[in-house]
Write a structure and sequence with these properties.
2 domains; 9 helices; 377 residues; 5-stranded parallel β-sheet; UDP N-Acetylglucosamine Acyltransferase, domain 1; 7-stranded mixed β-sheet; alpha/beta; single chain; Spore Coat Polysaccharide Biosynthesis Protein SpsA, Chain A
């Protein structure tokens, strides 16, 4: 059993334009010290996948800085390892239209050379908008046993209160886990089977699909390939029962982040034996809690200086909370600085933000107040 990983780092950039203006979705910070790509990449590495292609689009400098040569994921190796796949492999590849890809299928067309050079039998494809910690070996074994062309990973989830402006990919299947329907829908209530944007596919089948798409001028992987072939090809569903969160807007990013303040959620995501979530190592000093500091139910990364009050918040590396400052229900990205006597509530502050003395900023859980990177307020 051999498999190669393929991660799409940009497919859902437009869902959180605030956070992806200067970075890809895959490099969006999450959980105090991680990036969104870490969860997918860790699941692959923990499952024994040692060759991973990362499909990029634009704004991927921060992604390159984060991944480096892959050593923090044990992917710095001569054979296999991590491969960055930019939009164009050669200057002639897209000479006719001279445009970046605009769909998953067009992105896959740019990976043909990479896939042809692979010797693995199966491809695990994933996006970066889902946060989970999954044993992909079980999925691959199920895929092989059923002789499926594609196996879609599905999570049964209660999406009551789901943002009405967000779409989820809902699926239906029969008692033998055969896919019977898949569609993007706006769903705001009830329990549904949600496709979590991860699948296992036979490499030969994927290459044939891509070649047919090129020949026929197809544009959509979902509508032109999957939906056209339901009932004709052997498409299976695998039910994932672990912790799951999907990010489709700034509001859902805030909601997913706040879930990490629950002990059970952290244990189900980060506490799985032999399945750690790996990330870039930054050798920082421990966080310093000064006299008068007060921290309640918060996730605080290393390298911070806390002099004020932090409550129900997620604090990334290198953040400084000044004396008398109060930070509640907020997310502060790396190296942000909250000056003395400032008050924050339901705020998302991007990297290198400075909140000056005495400022009061407040949003709401349904509409957090966002401050862009390198901004001083």
């Amino acid at each position: 059993m051999t498999a190669v990983g393929l991660i799409f780092s940009n497919i859902h950039d437009n869902t959180i334009p605030e956070l992806t203006r200067k970075r890809t979705l895959g490099s969006v910070p999450f959980g105090g010290r991680y990036r969104l790509i870490d969860f997918t990449l860790s699941s692959m590495v923990n499952s024994g996948i040692s060759k991973v292609g990362v499909v990029t689009h634009n704004n991927y400098q921060s992604l390159l800085d984060h991944l480096g040569n892959g050593k923090d994921w044990d992917l710095a190796r001569r054979s296999g390892g991590i491969k960055i796949l930019p939009p164009y492999i050669t200057s002639f590849e897209n000479a006719a239209s001279n445009k970046f890809y605009s769909s998953r299928l067009e992105a896959l067309m740019g990976t043909v050379n990479f896939l042809n050079r692979c010797e693995e039998d199966y491809v695990v494809m994933s996006d970066c908008d889902v946060i989970c910690n999954i044993d992909l070996n079980k999925v691959i074994e199920s895929h092989i046993a059923s002789n499926a062309a594609i196996t879609f990973i599905v999570k049964k989830a209660d999406i009551a209160g789901h943002n009405e402006n967000e779409k989820v990919c809902a699926v239906e299947f029969d008692e033998n886990n055969n896919l019977t329907e898949i569609a993007e829908r706006k769903i705001t209530e009830g329990v549904s089977n949600i496709y979590i944007n991860m699948m296992v596919v036979k490499r030969d089948y994927l290459l044939n699909v891509i070649q047919e798409a090129i020949a026929r001028g197809y544009k959509s992987f979902l509508y032109d390939i999957i939906i056209r072939n339901i009932g004709k090809e052997n498409y299976k569903v695998y039910n994932y029962d672990g912790w799951y969160a999907q990010i489709g807007s700034l509001e859902s990013y805030f909601e997913c982040s706040m879930k990490l303040l629950d002990n059970d959620a952290r244990a189900r995501l980060f506490g799985i034996k032999n399945y750690p979530i790996l990330t870039k190592v930054r050798n920082s000093a421990p966080t310093r809690y000064c006299e008068g500091a007060k921290v309640i139910n918060s996730v605080v990364a290393e390298g911070c200086i806390i002099e004020g009050t932090v409550e129900n918040s997620i604090i990334f590396r290198g953040v400084h909370v000044g004396k008398g400052a109060v930070v509640k229900n907020s997310i502060l990205f790396q190296d942000s600085y909250v000056c003395p006597d400032a008050t924050l509530n339901c705020v998302i502050a991007d990297k290198n933000v400075m909140i000056k003395d005495g400022r009061t900023l407040s949003g709401h859980s349904s509409m957090p107040f966002y401050i862009g990177k390198d901004v001083t307020v």
